[in-house]
Amino acid sequence: MNQSNTIREMPRDERPYEKCSRLGAEHLSDVELLAVLLRTGTRGENALELAGRILYHAGGIGILGIHQFNAERLKQIKGIGNVKATQISCISELAKRLAKASYQDTVCFTDPKTIAQYYMEDLRHEKQEHMKLLMLNSKAKLLGETTISKGTVNASLVTPRELFIEALQKNAVSIIILHNHPSGDPSPSREDMLTTKRIQDAGALIGIELLDHIIIGNNCYISFREEGML
Asked: H or E element: which one contains 23?
């Protein structure tokens, strides 16, 4: 590889910018799309080569691997500094927000499937378990959401007191909890079931119903309500 190996020296029809203009973005490969967004390469390496190397470091899962990187891990890749790490982080976040926005008008907080679809991209790429609290009014409309736990979800870390303080401040009538399994398998663990039972019992005492606990896997989910566990 040498410094003269630039995209401008490639045949015009093979350059990703020109190819996109001529054929449309849908005709670009993952590497070409990432190269267009990165705009420039690094010393001795053009944007296409850099994009290919980034995807190589993504662990063999292609473009989805972008979601696995944080800024610090990106900067461990040769040629990636603060600017390019920020660019790639923003690409990942934009993709998540676009996916979530596409379900915004269809989400129904009495339908576990639409809830899982809406939060899927937020949670399925996380390397740690994140638990969210969704607070609803008497018409099952969302009043607010908050992350109540990061790390392993278990009965000792998730305290009903703090959870219901949030719910009472929002005047919630009912709540839904959801969290992800980084393994991709949404099957509930013993700790998941213990946590759910503690929250359900605490809610019954103060008049706030736990409508569901949804566990997000890799493009799949389990609803405690659908499975008859609530």
From this structure: helix 16-23
pLDDT at 143 over 60: yes
Instruction: Quote the CA–CA distance of 134 and 115 in Å, as a whole number.
Output: 10
Cα 197–chain centre separation? 27
Largest separation between any pair of C-alpha atoms in the chain = 71
Q: Is the pLDDT of residue 9 over 80?
A: no
Please report, to the nearest 10 degrees, the dihedral formed by the alpha carbons of residues 209, 211, 214, 220 taken in order.
Answer: 180
**pTM of the predicted model as reported, rounded to 2 decimal places:** 0.69
Q: How far is CA 123 from CA 86, 97, 120, in A?
A: 20, 12, 5
Mean pLDDT of the chain: 86
Report the alpha-carbon distance of residue 106 to residue 98 in Å, rounded: 14
**Dihedral of alpha carbons 179, 183, 185, 188, sign:** negative
